[in-house]
Amino acid sequence: MPETHFRPDIVALLCDTDFKYRPDTHTWTHRDGRPFSKEEQAHVFMATRAELEEVHAQTARYRQYVQARTEARETMQRFLAPFMQQLTQKTLGNATQLMSKDERNEFDRLFALMVEPIRPFAPNAF
After folding, report:
1. Cα–Cα distance list, 105 to 33, 39, 108, 109 (Å)
2. Tens-digit pLDDT profile for residues 26-83
3. What dihedral angle (degrees, nearest 10) is formed by the CA atoms of 69, 73, 75, 80?
4. I want to staple 83 with a disulfide (CB 3.0 to 4.6 A). Which of 70, 87, 95, 101 is the partner?
């Protein structure tokens, strides 16, 4: 598969666009409501297919991240159920004692998803 190249500045600008047209400036707006400058508007109109595909991919990864965060508690319960069934004293500490290294890594990943606040979308972060 050929490697695609894109300009990170255009991708970042497109990721920060809410595409609301402002008739007063004849431009789109940033996610925070600021209108694009004429230069920014001209810059995003130079976007290539590869850059638009990268914006789409980053947005899709962010949606997957948010979905994983939203479902983390249920996923953790399903993950812990087989360990808890093996225990007479059903505590989290006892359950982690039964886990392999890979299972403990998965437990840590799910735990982090549950306790960390959801990060806002940022270009080139997802």
Report:
1. 40, 46, 5, 6
2. 899 998 999 999 999 999 999 999 999 999 999 999 999 999 999 999 999 999 999 9
3. 140
4. 95
What sign results for the dihedral spanned by CA atoms 84, 87, 93, 98? negative
- pLDDT grade for 4, boundaries at 50, 70 and 90: low
Transcribe 101-123 into DSSP letters: HHHHHHHHHHHHHHHSPPPPP-T
What is the value of pTM for the model shown? 0.72
Q: Which residues contact 22 (CB under 8 A, 6 or more apart)?
A: 28, 29, 35
CA distances 95 to 72, 76, 90, 108, 110, Å, are 18, 12, 7, 13, 15
